[in-house]
Structure formats: C-alpha cells, structure tokens
Design goal:
By secondary structure, this protein is α+β, with helices and mostly antiparallel strands. The strands form 3 sheets. A 6-stranded antiparallel β-sheet has the order 3-4-9-8-7-6, with no helix packed on it. A 3-stranded antiparallel β-sheet has the order 2-1-10, with no helix packed on it. It is built from 7 helices and 11 strands.
Length: 258
C-alpha cells in the first residue's frame, strides 16, 4: 500500500497509516480509521510521493493526540515508525540494515552531514574536505553508519570539484533513478543506511571502469586502515556500452540480422 501511487486517494492514505500503526505495535482498537484525523499524515505522504520514490511517514504530533484516544499509550512504539523508508528508494530493492528516526540522525550527524546524507543536499564544488585529498592507503566509510564504501586506490582527480571514485567495495552502494532538476541521473546511496552519497556518471573515460562516482565529502569519512578482510571492489553499474554500440544493437533488434 505504501509503495502505491494511489496514495493520493484519501481512503488509501488511511489504509497506509493504519498499516504503519499496526506495524509499530499499536493495538487494533487504537488504530484510527478517520480520514479527517489522518489528514496531516496524508499530506506528508502526498508530498513525498510527488518528489521521490522514498516515502516518509510522520506520526501525528501533540495536536492530534486529543483526537486519537489511547495515542499516548503507543507513542514510544510510534517514534520508531515516525520515518519509514521503503525498498523502492533504491533500484535494487535493498532494505537498509541501519535505520534511525530523524531525531536520532540529527543528534549523531553534523547539520551539514544531515542535510546531505538524509535530505540529499549537495556541497558547493571545491569546498569538501576530501576533494583534493589523495591518500595512498586506507579507505572511506559512510559517515552515517561506517559501512566501507571506497578504497583509497579507487579515488582519482576528475577536476569536478567533488571527490571522485571509479569503483566501490562490493555490495556497499546501491543506486536510485533521480529525475530532479529536469534531467535523469543515477543517484548513489550507502547500502547500509540509505545515506545519500552523490551521483555516478559513466562513459567519460577517466579510468578503465568508465565510472565516476561524484561523492560529497560530508557523506564519507577517511579511515587510515586497509579494507576489511575479504573485501573486493567492483563497478556499481552494468558494463558500459558506447552510445553507438547501443544504437547498433537497437537497429539490429529492430531489423533482424538482415
């Protein structure tokens, strides 16, 4: 229900919020069924669905409590359900192992880290701590959950104004289709917590992998030690095919082998 674009209909919004409350441990008798009572949460759902695949559900605040008998009794459980990010947030359908409420993220991250990792902000080019930092050893981890993401050897100078990497620690990064700013880009996120890292671009020819991971410095932290034992590195995107090859394959499929 939460993943459906039919959330713009009020009855479905009520169903969605009832589901969230049920998952949070609320007793059936405490699950509200009134569309009017859930209107603020419905508006939050509608805003989320209009801008991103991520769906954020905020539990009703103090103004709602007087209208929902028994709400205070389940408030502690609802805090954990106050922000729920569904699998549709990434193209691989990965469910993040590290989950926290917005308040918990705000307490553990700096304002800049929170803006970038949790709200998908972006540093000004050339201002990041790691933009021109090229260690010979060590690796970079997610600033939100310390998931190893990139080796020092994967970092290179692209001149773009942000740290650039050409490969990931296997299974550490997931992608999402980003259609903001009037264009289609490939967003990269930490596979551990869903934190926004930046975007990946391909076909530029900087390195043999044909990938440039454009990463915000605030999204990562440098660790002066080798990658964990057994860690391997790979591309995050499928093998790169030049545009002309893609066009040729399209024509071949269209016309057959003739």
């Amino acid at each position: 229900v939460l993943a459906s674009r039919s959330l713009h209909s009020k009855p479905t919004a009520v169903m969605a919020l009832r589901l969230v409350l049920s998952l949070s441990g609320a007793a059936a008798s405490m699950v509200p069924t009134s569309t009017a009572a859930l209107r603020p949460a419905y508006k939050a759902l509608s805003r989320s669905m209009g801008s991103t695949h991520a769906i954020t559900v905020t539990y009703p605040g103090s103004a709602m409590q007087s209208r929902l008998p028994g709400f205070a009794a389940v408030a502690s459980q609802l805090r954990r359900a106050s922000t729920m990010t569904m699998k549709l947030e990434n193209d691989q359908g990965v469910e993040y192992k590290v989950t926290r409420t917005d308040e918990e993220w705000k307490k553990m991250l700096t304002p800049q880290q929170y803006n970038i990792l949790r709200q998908k902000g972006t540093e000004y080019p050339g201002t990041g701590e790691y933009d021109k930092y090229y260690p010979k050893e060590g690796h970079f981890v997610c600033a939100g959950c310390e998931q190893p993401l990139y080796s020092a050897a994967a970092k290179f100078d692209s001149g773009c104004g942000w740290p650039a990497f050409d490969k990931i620690v296997a299974d550490s990064v997931v992608t999402a289709t980003d259609k903001s700013l009037g264009m289609t880009r490939v967003e990269i996120l930490c596979a551990g917590c869903g934190g926004h890292l930046g975007h990946v671009f391909e076909g530029e020819g900087f390195t043999p992998t044909m990938e440039r991971h454009c990463v915000n410095s605030a999204s990562v932290k440098y660790v002066d030690s080798p990658l964990p034992d057994g860690a391997t590195e790979k591309k995050v995107l499928p093998p790169f095919k030049p545009p002309l090859e893609k066009a040729g394959n399209f024509l071949k499929n269209l016309l057959g082998d003739k």
